[in-house]
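Good morning C.,

I know you're traveling, so I'll keep this short. The sequence:
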Amino acid sequence: MRAAHGLSQEYLKKGPVEIEKNPLDQKVLRGEIVSIPDVTKEPLFQYPKEAQKEGICSLLSVPLKMREKPVGVLRIYTSQPHQFKKSEVAIANTLALEGAIAIEKAKLQQRMQTLMEIAKSINSTLNLSEVLDLIVKSAARTMGHKAASLRLLNREGETLKIRATYGLSKKYLEKGPVRVSESPLDQECLAGKPVNIADVDAEPRVRYREEIKREEISAVLYVPLLVKNKAIGLLRVYSSLPHRFTPDEVDFLSALANQVATAIENARLFEQIKRDHEDLTQNVWKWYDWGSRPPKL
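The tokens, ready to paste straight into the viewer:
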């Protein structure tokens, strides 16, 4: 539930609206319009007793669409039996369109704000772990999905080591090593291509299936982390529902991956400068014969 008017808190808290148990919402999310003159006489209507107590009689449900893809449902209720007219359905469709546009604008603004906050964090701290934690948290929360993780290749380039996570259990993270040679999906991503898995059950290349099922992961988006056009790791976002990630979501996660690369490169350059400065200090100390031990920096 994102917004409501004219409904009691008791009704709004009646219980979850699970799509798989609600054939009417399934129809709406397929792009159909559902009009019910009397919900008490509709066997497929969920929570009929609660609706009757609330004084709800008729229902009109229309899909909220973004770029022709349903992303939600707009419902209109009446307290008396009512057959919705074509003109009323047209008005509801217009309101749903305006709502979808408002949602898309809000998401775009939120993503832009997230990128700006991360850029500010990168420029204000040299604590790489802090920046990576912020990025995975921002990826999951801004995109509205279950979890996110960031893995980097080890020195040999054989294993992907976890560096930051958000929303994943400790048990899942300890499921086992992620060896590149055993993971075709990771190989594809490390070659520089985003990997969009809309349904892990239907993807034969997915590993650790039992662990993924227990973690309630249904879809995954992978994007590569590139430094100077070389893959050093990958960033993943996980969805608890089957979901084909949109081009906008792929672009946003790729933008976050670019910020990861910037943060890692900044940390590497800082360590290089620090080492060079320490070497120079030691050399100057020896040149001027100020003692056997240079000052500790």
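Safe travels,
E.
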